[in-house]
Amino acid sequence: MFKNGILRCVVRAQSMKSFSTSCEANSKVAVLGASGGIGQPLSLLLKESPMISQLSLYDIAHTPGVAADLSHIETRANVTGHMGPDQLGEALQGCDVVLIPAGVPRKPGMTRDDLFNTNASIVRDLCKAAAETCPDAMLGIITNPVNSTVPIASEIYKKAGCYNPSKIFGVTTLDVVRANTFVSQIKGLDVSATSVPVIGGHAGVTIIPLLSQATPAVTFPQADLEALTVRIQNAGTEVVEAKAGAGSATLSMAYAAARFCFSLLAAIEGKEGVIECAYVKSDLTESSYFANPILLGVKNGLEKNLGFGTLSDYEQQLVKDAMAELKSSIKKGEDFVA
User: Fold this and answer.
1) Which tens digits make up the pLDDT trace of 280-299?
2) Same domain, 88 and 179
3) Residue numbering of the annotated binding site for substrate
4) In this structure, are 178 and 287 located in the same domain?
C-alpha cells in the first residue's frame, strides 16, 4: 500500500529512457497486430530497445513489409514478420513477452463496449495460440475493451491449464501517461518528474486518477478537480473526435505500451523496484479485476500488488461509482468464453 505518493509509479521516466537505452538483454517479444495503427509505432519503439534481441511481428496482412522496413534500422533486435493463422505459432515460439494490440479502433460515437464483439473474438483466438505455444510468457493486453478482454484472456488460459494471474496484464499505462501530462501542463511542472497513479479500469468512469497522491503534491478546487478527472476519463474520446473518423489513440497508446513492456523486461532481468499501474486479477475491491500500482519482478511478472493507499472522499466515491460497470464488463468477458 502507499500513501501521499511515497510509493508510486516511480519508474515512468526510466522505463522509456534508462531502461530502453542502458539495459541489454536477450528477450523475445511478440506484437500481435503489428501492422495496425498501434502495432506499427509500438514495433518501432520496441526495435530501438537493446533489451530485445528478437522482435516477432504478427498480423493477418502486411506484416512482411512492416518487418522488412523495421529490419533496416541499426539496432540489435532481429525482426521477423509472420502473416496469417498458419504462421501464428511460429511467431509466438519462445517468447518472453506477448503484446496484443490487435483489433478494430474506435470511431466517433463508439464506446469501447461497441468494439466488444469483434475484438473479443480476436483476443480469444490469439490467447489460445499463446497459451498453447508460449504459456509462460508475460501477456500484455492492449485491445479494447480491456475491462473485458483481460478476463477473456484469463478464461482462455484457465481452459488451457496454464493460467497464472501474475503474468496477465491489462495495459492501462496510457491513463497514467495522460494524467501525468495534463497535471504537469496545468501546474507548470516538469512532466518527467510528475507521477499520478490511476486505478480502476480502462474505460470511462472506471478510470480513477488519484490526484490526491500525485507527485509532486498538487491541489485543485473541487470544480477543477472534477473537470480534470472527467478529462482524463474521456481522453480517448477526445482523440477519437479530434481524428474525425480517422482512428483512435495510436501513437500515445504505442508509447504507453512500450513503456510498460520496457518496465516488464527490466524487472525480468532483475532490476528492483519497478512499479507500473496495470489492470490485473485482484481481491482488493468488489471487482475481481482492478488496476493499481504493482511491483514487477523476475519470476512472476506481478511480484506484489501494492494496492491504492488512502483515498480522498471524492476518490472513494469514484471507486464506488465504477463498481457496477467494472463487474458488468468482467462478466461479459467471462461469459463470452464460457
Assistant:
1) 999 999 999 999 999 999 87
2) no
3) 106, 112, 144, 178
4) yes
